[in-house]
Amino acid sequence: xxxxxxxxxxxxxxxxxxxxxxxxxxxxxxxxxxxxxxxxxxxxxxxxxxxxxxxxxxxxxxxxxxxxxxxxxxxxxxxxxxxxxxxxxxxxxxxxxxxxxxxxxxxxxxxxxxxxxxxxxxxxxxxxxxxxxxxxxxxxxxxxxxxxxxxxxxxxxxxxxxxxxxxxxxxxxxxxxxxxxxxxxxxxxxxxxxxxxxxxxxxxxxxxxxxxxxxxxxxxxxxxxxxxxxxxxxxxxxxxxxxxxxxxxxxxxxxxxxxxxxxxxxxxxxxxxxxxxxxxxxxxxxxxxxxxxxxxxxxxxxxxxxxxxxxxxxxxxxxx
Length: 320
What we know:
By secondary structure, the chain is of the alpha/beta class.
């Protein structure tokens, strides 16, 4: 059984899954102090918009999304509950911390080696999210997330990786790591987690698809890691390059190690949506279904390979 916003779901009902998405990206301290901001955060309106977008991809054959919004990105489960009530798409939520270099002060100022010392609360926080539920919602997280962007981990990221590893040990929850293709930090993420006992088949190397270096990607896959080809629609790497990389990896036999997604949001107050729409016109939940999969088929990727990346691999990861 896999935990979702509506409770446990049998893994064979997961269906076609986007493994790295977001619903809302929020800056709560900004909104608390400036409710008149032009971004206009209003739960009911934004929840209906999100549900409408999810219902569109349900009609295109997507059954589940994994929302990787964690602490540091404005996770607010009551808002996601309103979305879940209005869509048939299954929503899997996550726990962890999004930080590239410095832990949020709530965690960073506590614990061994911190400025003020005391008990490290991260493991307790993550385990409770997974086993008991997030806040008082009863909604349980089913993914862990952290960030490793550099070849060398600083003290804060080391602490986070230790906490994520310990939580995985206690709960078995799979891990997505935000990595940077420019530094090829997937290697550092692997070594940091493996050193602490995390098996490679419990680790997704997030944003692996930002790389066009198929030798680097093959190296990660050969270690048994999952490759998150998860930024379709973001033109930091062209759509053509992203598709060509997936095709090349399929030709090498690695469909069994890849998952596909967009890393898209329905509402994100941290970007200017009008500018994003111009610069990244395909940055939305429907791009893979409407554009990417038909093009993969045209280039020789078989339906069996597509099903492996979209259905079987997500089911394996989430039910492990």
